[in-house]
Structures are given as C-alpha cells and as structure tokens.
C-alpha cells in the first residue's frame, strides 16, 4: 500500500518564477492538505482540498493556489516566488469525515528560491 | 486562538535514560492532540494521538504520552531512550474551528538528541 507520494523531492527556482508541486494521497484517502515548513519551524497550514474544491485556507497570499483532480491527487502552485518561499512543502492526506484527525504525510518537496 | 507550545528547543538525554518532551496546548473544549516525529530530510511520521478516554496513550516505537487536562499538557515520554530516537518532534492539536476537516496546528518542534 503506497503512502503519500510527492514530487519533485528537491527543486531550485529564482525569484519571480513559478513552481508546481505534486502529491498523490494514500490509497483510500480523499482529502489533501498542504503545509509549509520553513527552516526551524513547525508546519504551517496552507490549504486543504476535498471533492476538487478548496475547503479551508490558512494565512497565505493568493500567490499560493492549488488543485485537486478526480483521482484525488493534488497540485500546489506558487507564483512570483520570493526568497521567503524557500521551505519544505508537505502534503498530507486523510479521509473526510474521519473523527480521528490523523494526517498521513509525504516526504515533502524542498524548494529553494535564489 | 488555538495554539500549541513546545517550551524546549532541544532535549538532551543519555541512551537508556527516560525522556520527556513537553507540550502544552490552548484550545476551547476537548482537544484532539497528536505527536509526530521528523527524521532529517524526511516528512512527518505519526507517533500517537489522544482523542478521548484513558489519559495515558501508547504509540509507536515505545513512545507514550500523558494527557493532563488541568495543566493543559500532553507530554511525550519513553522509559528508555535509544540513539535512533534522535529526531525532531512536533506536538499538534486539531483545529476545532475546521469543522469536519482535519486541520492541524503544530508547535515549533523540539529536537531530541540521545547520546550514547
């Protein structure tokens, strides 16, 4: 049973560029969340997708956008990259309506903005 | 506002000794609490959770955590530390304002260093 998979694992961009990160949820999961983990900090919630719609959003600007596909996979897009966007981006999946609240995380995509 | 605090940036312990990683929370109502571990250049791995019931929760790799409602704490413990336990540990609480959606609020993390 494959867990949460993310791609790419590492990437380097320059300021002003755009980036797309991809995530496939754990088998049987229908909800995907994205978190940003800056160096030395805990993960910060970006947004969550369920039934191909953004359901919740954290305190991130509109430069951060996402998408969920019919197969439950998801993309995170960041436009007009800033140096401060350098971070580990984590995808987490879960089952909608689960009362346990447990999230399953991927290995992350490490973005470096130069 | 809901939040989680991990008061120690780093905890150092000798192999074989008991370890405690501290966490306090601030949330209205009954909390859902979690511990995750992160090894270098890896994602987060689930260790254990408290939803309801027994205040002592047992999880993966011999870890356990004690929920204390009066002290609003959820400290992570292990009776005998291993060098392989060295990692970054995160406490998290489920955002009760997220409705039916599982949104977690994380602490800043505590680095555990177990010395041989």
Written account of the structure:
The complex is a heterodimer of chains A (114) and B (116). Chain A is mostly beta strands and 114 residues long. Helix content of chain A is 0%, strand content 50%. Chain A contains no helices and eleven strands. In chain A, strand 4 and strand 5 form a beta hairpin. The radius of gyration of chain A is 13 Å and the shape is globular. The N and C termini of chain A lie far apart (37 Å). With 116 residues, chain B is mostly beta strands. Chain B contains no helices and twelve strands. In chain B, strands 2, 5, 6, 10, 11 and 12 form a six-stranded mixed sheet that branches. Chain B has a four-stranded antiparallel sheet with strand order 3-9-8-7, with no helix packed on it. Chains A and B meet through strand 4, strand 5, strand 9 and strand 10 of A and strand 6, strand 10 and strand 11 of B.
Spell out the helices and strands of chain A N to C. Answer: EEEEEEEEEEE
Low-confidence stretches of chain B: none
Please outline the major beta sheet of chain B: 6 strands, mixed
Element pattern of chain B in H and E = EEEEEEEEEEEE
Supply the helix-strand structural class of chain B: mainly beta
State Rg of chain B. Answer: 14 Å
User: Beta-sheet strand percentage of chain A?
Assistant: over 45%
Number of helices of chain B: 0
* Assembly context of the chains: heterodimer
Main pleated sheet of chain A: 7 strands, mixed
Task: List the SSEs and their pairings.
The complex is a heterodimer of chains A (114) and B (116).
Chain A: E1 5-7, E2 10-13, E3 19-24, E4 31-37, E5 44-50, E6 53-57, E7 64-68, E8 74-78, E9 87-94, E10 104-105, E11 109-113
Parallel strand pairs in A: 2-11
Antiparallel strand pairs in A: 1-3, 3-8, 4-5, 4-9, 5-6, 7-8, 9-10, 9-11
Chain B: E1 3-5, E2 10-14, E3 19-21, E4 24-26, E5 33-38, E6 44-50, E7 56-58, E8 64-68, E9 73-78, E10 87-94, E11 104-106, E12 110-115
Parallel strand pairs in B: 2-12
Antiparallel strand pairs in B: 1-4, 3-9, 5-6, 5-10, 7-8, 8-9, 10-11, 10-12
